[in-house]
């Protein structure tokens, strides 16, 4: 586990700075383009939105816009990777993983290739485009493929480092990114470590394990709970696969109750992944905040997070239910 | 064959209304896709006024015609023509893309409003339309299935799987109208991924395929008549359009694929569509 890193000012009561993780992706790609001549980038007619466009401008010979054809894009990425390239492939999370699931399994993961799928516009915070675009099952379908390594950065600071790390980690990687600007959680000194959870705050009454945009909500919820005399440990579980089960085991032992939070289906997502680690190590009561088996709908990202109980108030309410079970 | 003056005027008026509604809806939502629906307005109005037998009276008739909007992002125009045909109250249009609205950012299958299928992910539509067409045939119905698609959607491989199968099964009750505006999100097709001659492609796949001026109402109507008369093959009408047609600053501009006009641009667009004076002020209020 990463020792408690310094957090950004938001959490000292200062107005949050915000940035979109997709922008950090675009910046990291530019760094990689300059430092690693084997890096190639593919997109599927969304290069302005996924932020691969700047790489394309800087390295037109290493950039391939495949048009609206995600399955073909992943297949071509696999071919490039088989020839020694480190292939980053991007689209919206819905289409990168949904359209091309079979190609990802057969052509990327079975031959264990260096394809890095960095998908943006994941989750509810895509907003008004509605359910056809709100990918809430991508972590599930990526993490179950043998060999696929899954990272969900909590903010733009972590996203940049995760993308740089993805280029170095051997084999397939899936990085889940967001459209919306979300609070900056970490200070610039934070160091992402692949496969390791970070403890953002300690507490003994329960642990909140979160990924992606719900990490900021988890910290806010922990502050609210603290005001009620309840101390929560907060874990940023940015690597979903492989999971840091030591961090989960310690949280279960030290806190005796675990709440998970994700902008994703509970089924097969972070909640299930943590539950597996919990039942295998130190079973304790758990609650899951996520999508409970429904699709999303049109609305602003903030409206949707509140509607589905994934904002700080929603997490606090579930934490209180969980504590009743712990005490029972 | 050309339309009577009266019939043409009705279609022109519905097409203009699609353009006006699209500007207002996307402006009110402050997000969405104005360019596509404005460019498709002429063939959507011709189709829904003169060919599709969808109305409040036929809505629940099992053998009525069906429509699938493959390029689901262009749904502002689709919602406009459905409301113009009386399938839901016109006031509802301005709830587009807002929390709780039936007018979702991409169409959601809603039988009571005549929205026949959920779309938004490009590439899926022609297969679904073929399934509907095969169901109608197997029921012995005269149902026609109309599928809107786009040059961008034509880049998806599944479209060509559906095209192969539709010809194989002789789905002559299936017509696809392809919005060929030479634009996709990242730019003009020639700069991103050229789909080339879609008519020749569909023809090679065994379809009855026609190039059509997508802003010539008589030509669109004639092509839809030809599609109806075709008895053995599915029909592809490659509708050559300009994205944003009728709003000068949007025409042929990929930038207007998915950006909402602000107050000033909305006002300019509505003025170009012939809205002025008190009516314009009321719309912008
Ligand atoms: C499978 C899939 N991939 C990507 C997208 C995102 N997307 C929405 S519209 C679009 C461009 C499509 O081109 P076209 O339909 O020709 O757009 P228009 O002419 O209306 O600008 C893309 C890539 C999507 N909706 N579905
Ligand atoms: Mg187009």
Task: Provide the fold topology.
The complex is a heterodimer of chains A (328) and B (285).
Chain A: E1 18-19, H1 21-35, E2 39-43, H2 47-50, H3 53-58, E3 63-65, H4 70-82, E4 86-90, H5 93-98, H6 101-109, E5 115-119, H7 138-143, E6 149-151, H8 156-168, E7 173-176, E8 182-183, E9 198-201, E10 206-210, H9 214-227, E11 232-236, E12 239-241, H10 245-255, E13 258-265, H11 270-281, E14 286-291, H12 301-307, H13 312-327
Parallel strand pairs in A: 2-3, 2-4, 4-5, 5-7, 6-7, 10-11, 10-13, 13-14
Antiparallel strand pairs in A: 1-8, 6-12, 9-11
Helix pairs in contact in A: 1-8, 4-6, 9-13, 10-11
Chain B: H1 5-29, H2 35-50, E1 66-69, H3 75-84, H4 125-139, E2 145-150, H5 157-168, E3 174-180, E4 183-184, E5 187-188, H6 189-192, H7 198-204, E6 208-213, H8 217-229, E7 235-240, H9 263-272, H10 277-284
Parallel strand pairs in B: 1-2, 2-3, 3-7, 6-7
Antiparallel strand pairs in B: 4-5
Helix pairs in contact in B: 1-2, 1-3, 1-9, 2-3, 2-8, 4-5
Specify the structural class of chain B: alpha/beta
Q: Measured on Cα atoms, how large is the radius of gyration of chain A? A: 19 Å
Oligomer: heterodimer
Helix content of chain B: 40-55%
Strand order of the main beta sheet of chain A, please?
Answer: 3-2-4-5-7-6-12
Q: Average the pLDDT over all residues of chain A and give the rounded result.
A: 96
Output the CATH class name of chain B: Alpha Beta
Approximate helicity band of chain A: 40-55%
The side-by-side strand order for the widest beta sheet of chain B comes to: 1-2-3-7-6
Question: Mind telling me which CATH architecture of chain B this is?
Answer: 3-Layer(aba) Sandwich
Here the CATH topology of the largest domain in chain A equals Rossmann fold
| Biggest sheet architecture of chain A | 7 strands, mixed
Unreliable stretches of chain A: none
End-to-end C-alpha gap of chain A: 30 Å
- Per CATH, the class of the largest domain in chain A reads Alpha Beta
Mean pLDDT across residues of chain B: 98
What is the terminal separation of chain B in angstroms? 44 Å
| Poorly predicted parts of chain B | none
């Amino acid at each position: 586990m990463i020792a408690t890193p310094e957090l950004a000012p938001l959490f000292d009561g200062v107005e949050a700075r915000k940035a979109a993780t997709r922008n950090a992706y675009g910046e990291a790609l530019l760094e990689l383009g300059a430092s690693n001549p084997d890096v190639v980038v593919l997109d599927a007619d969304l290069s302005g939105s996924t932020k691969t466009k700047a790489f394309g401008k800087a390295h037109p010979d290493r950039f391939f816009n495949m048009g609206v054809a995600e399955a073909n894009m992943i297949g071509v990425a696999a071919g490039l990777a088989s020839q020694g390239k480190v292939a980053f492939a991007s689209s919206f999370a819905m289409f990168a993983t949904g359209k091309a699931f079979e190609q990802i399994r057969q052509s990327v993961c079975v031959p264990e290739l260096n394809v890095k799928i960095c998908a943006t516009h994941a989750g509810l915070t895509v907003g008004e485009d509605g359910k056809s675009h709100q990918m809430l099952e991508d972590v599930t379908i990526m993490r179950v493929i043998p060999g696929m390594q899954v990272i969900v950065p909590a903010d733009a600071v972590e996203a940049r480092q995760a993308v740089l790390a993805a280029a170095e980690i051997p084999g397939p990687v899936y990085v889940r990114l967001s459209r919306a600007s979300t609070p900056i959680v970490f200070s610039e000194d934070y160091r992402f470590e692949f496969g390791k959870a970070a403890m953002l705050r300690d507490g003994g009454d329960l642990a909140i394990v979160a990924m992606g945009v719900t990490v900021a909500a988890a910290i806010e919820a922990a502050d609210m709970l603290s005001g009620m005399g309840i101390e929560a440990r907060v874990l940023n579980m940015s690597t979903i696969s492989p999971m840091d089960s030591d961090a989960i085991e310690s949280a279960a032992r030290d806190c005796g109750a675990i709440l998970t939070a994700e902008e994703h289906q509970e089924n097969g997502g972070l909640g299930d992944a943590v539950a597996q680690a919990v039942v295998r190590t130190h079973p304790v009561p758990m609650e899951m905040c996520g999508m409970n088996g429904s699709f999303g709908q049109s609305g602003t990202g903030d409206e949707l997070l509140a509607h589905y109980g994934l904002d700080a108030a929603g997490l606090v309410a579930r934490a209180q239910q969980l504590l009743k079970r712990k005490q029972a | 064959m050309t339309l009577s003056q009266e019939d043409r005027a009705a279609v022109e008026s519905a097409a203009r209304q699609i353009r006006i509604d699209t500007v207002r809806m996307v402006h009110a939502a402050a997000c969405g896709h104005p360019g596509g629906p404005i460019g498709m307005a002429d063939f959507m109005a011709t189709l829904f006024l003169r060919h599709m037998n969808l109305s409040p009276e036929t809505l629940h008739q099992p053998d009525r015609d069906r429509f699938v909007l493959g390029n689901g992002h262009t749904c502002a125009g689709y919602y406009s023509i459905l409301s113009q045909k009386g399938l839901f109250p016109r006031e509802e249009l301005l709830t587009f893309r807002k929390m709780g609205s039936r007018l979702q950012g991409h169409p959601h299958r809603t039988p009571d409003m005549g929205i026949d299928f959920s779309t938004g992910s490009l590439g899926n539509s022609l297969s679904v339309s073929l399934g509907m067409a095969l169901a109608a045939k197997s029921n012995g119905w005269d149902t026609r299935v109309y599928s809107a698609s786009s040059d961008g959607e034509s880049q998806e491989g599944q479209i060509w799987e559906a095209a192969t199968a539709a010809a194989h099964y002789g789905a002559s009750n299936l017509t696809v109208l392809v919005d060929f505006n030479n634009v996709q999100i990242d730019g003009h097709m020639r700069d991103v991924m050229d789909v080339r001659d879609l008519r020749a492609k569909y023809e090679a796949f065994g379809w009855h395929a026609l190039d059509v001026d997508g802003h010539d109402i008589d030509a669109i109507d004639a092509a839809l008549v030809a599609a109806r008369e075709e008895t053995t093959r599915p029909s592809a009408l490659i509708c050559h359009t300009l994205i944003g047609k009728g709003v000068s600053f949007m025409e042929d501009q990929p930038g207007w694929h998915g950006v909402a006009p602000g107050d000033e641009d909305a006002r300019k667009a509505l003025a170009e569509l012939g809205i002025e004076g008190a009516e314009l002020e009321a719309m912008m209020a």
